[in-house]
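Hi team, as promised in this morning's meeting, here are the two structures we talked about. I've kept the exact order from the run log so nobody has to guess. The first one is mostly here for context; it's the second one we should focus on when we meet again. Sequence first, then the predicted structure tokens.
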Amino acid sequence: MTSNNLSSREPLLPGSTIGILGGGQLGRMLAVAASKLGLNTHIYCPDPESPAFDVAKYHTIAPYDDQNALKEFATSVDLVTYEFENVPTKAANLIKEQVFLAPGVNALKTSQDRLLEKKFLQELDIAISPFEPVNSPQQLLQAIKIIGTPSVLKTTRFGYDGKGQRIIKTAKGAHDAYKEFAGKQLVLEAFVEFDSEISVVIARNASGQIAAFEPSTNIHKNHILHTSTVPASIEKSTAIKAIAIATKIAECLQYQGVMAVEFFVCKADQSANNKQMLLVNEIAPRVHNSGHWTQNVCPTDQFEQHIRAICNWPLGQTERMANVVMRNLIGGEINLIPHGLSPNDHPHIYGKSHSRPGRKMGHVNTITPL
């Protein structure tokens, strides 16, 4: 049985095998990064068409609640990581009893539940939007009296790319939204009038070394990330503060691996020293869509950095060597790639067998000189 005590971790040696829970594009790019460092990967995913299977040495097709399959998987690898934060906690706990899991269960539990995440951030005195828990129609109406409208009703779990949330403008709208989410734990958040959205991708290894990439400005379309642009359109002091907040979160979680912290950038009041104020929106305990820009302009991209961090290797350089815009390819946009590339466009295709509206099929990093 392997200890999950970060401070006791010896660096994982080349030739070892990393288990990855999840077989989507993030798992695929992690497997490619691991192979460049002389490490094998074993992908565990219930989807037989997982694109990560194509680039991994081993794979297991089984549900996340199959205890026997999880144990067999865990005992076949030297450590386990994951590509998505909705790994069932029961599965994560079973894994960690067999082999080292990074990031750990605490980070997973905190980020899986919006309410837990917000309380964690409150305890760290990190600014977030006002919120109220909602467990009944009566509690929703009371929360609206406190938060006001417009506000956003969200499920506390399994929300991403706009799923699991509705904007509340009226009492009738609140009633309809509650009916839609009936039976789920909910939270009402104040609607934030923000100037922009940014994120910081940061890494920490077991030795406590931390390295951050600079923030990107993120633009969403239909609740899905459309572009990430670096340099971000924010003040230098705002970028420094965002990295400091992400660092504080990583240290307090005793984190190991790459994580993303998403922020709203808002106008500060006139008495503030800075013109911009930051509110943390959410934490993602994994490599992140808004960090894909690092693949073509940084000495160490987010995927290699994650492998280095979980293996307790020294972290790589994060300095940016060019300006870059990352653009997601959604659905049928993937078919336009052969016809529309310019010399400074760098495509990354995920190898998914079927495209459909709203599905991320790849991305393009467009680079220009500093």
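And here is the second protein, the one for discussion:
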Amino acid sequence: MSITTLLAIPLIIASLFSSCQKENQTPEWEWPEEEEQNKDNASKPKYIWVDAAANFPDFANSRENITRDLTIAKNSGFTHIVVDVRPTTGDVLFNTNVVEQVEFLGAWIGGSYQRYERTATWDYLQAFIDEGHKLGLKVYAAINTFVGGNRTSLGTSGVVFRDPAKKAWTTELNLTGGVTSIMDADKNAKFFNPVRDEVQEYICQILEDLARYPQLDGIVLDRGRFDGFESDFSTYTKQKFENYIGESVQNFPNDIIPPGTKVGQLPNPLPKYFKKWLEFRVKVIHDFMVKARGRVKAINPDIDFGVYVGGWYSSYYDVGVNWASPNFVTSSKYSWATSEYKNFGYADHMDFMLIGAYAAANRVYGQSEWTMQGFTLKAKEVIMGAAPVSAGPDGNFFYPNQVPAGVNVGEAIANSVDACINAGDGYFFFDMIHLKQNNQWQYVKAGIDAANAQK
């Protein structure tokens, strides 16, 4: 969920807008007693995300700046810091022998995209843990899960550009011109193929090292998904899919998804294996989440394990994720789902879930998707109490050039707290950089103060 990607969210939303469980399984996360469910807003968590690249100019080499901004976050009412320690380069900002440390990242400052190098030798993640805990904050570490490198105007970085063996793990895309390696496609973030066993093992090893931080409060998986609707169409994945359905696909990929097909532009009738393909993909991600949780908890059983996902469940099948409860019967609501699709909802394996309620500043309240409140309500509906839900806005929509005419941005930010925290179990704001660049801390503080005062 890099800033570069999020700046394109309005276009992504426009393209997605038109898109339209194992039963009786005991959830690993047990919902609290009723009196705990109905606790007041003051005791609900308030999360703020700290994107690695966007905040790198301030934080890469300055513990003092980390302390300064965590103090501001604390005084604004936030209780949980989510610090990104594996950006889309796939390199890391914590101690591990699995992958190299981040040496530089690009960030937009003053209207230009610039390179910022890390010269400090102190542990970036540990600094957030130490400074956050001094302030009484919980500190969670986030990783961009299935990425291994990126290409920007500053050049290339990441393991897929250094290691030919890992380059071979990258995803192959079903584009109009044919199946194409993402390394040859016009995409910044270079995704791995989540289907590959060695990719899953590699990520689990990284997660194990994160879990070895004894004072870390939680781990968040971002981009725990396929790259998109066109991913992955490699021979490797084709064979895995054929093993799953027990037959050969003769007309590949057309009998699954015709080349270049976009979400919301599905052929009618649907291709022969389309629904089963969606089912297969969510099973891949479900099974990985179960595996990853197990590996993390084996190292540190007390650490919180959760995910960030976008709130647009109605079209989230495009990235191969069913983040609902396995008790939510997806096929009863959505025609693209098989009856077995529900079995691979993974909410019951999460200790918490962060939901991107990324709607425009004039769409705070509402009952449906594409409003902040509606995204939260929909998340609660499909998660069905399997895990607590904290949802909230993308601060990109509160920039002056994004706010519709007639909207008071301060009121919109404050109201986002009211809309999301009362519809859900907490509040989530992406990203700290937006509040800093626009000097909008006071608005989110007003919203949190008002929410905390409600009984």
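Starting points for discussion:
The CA atoms of residues 67 and 134 lie 9 Å apart.
The chain has 15 helices and 15 strands.
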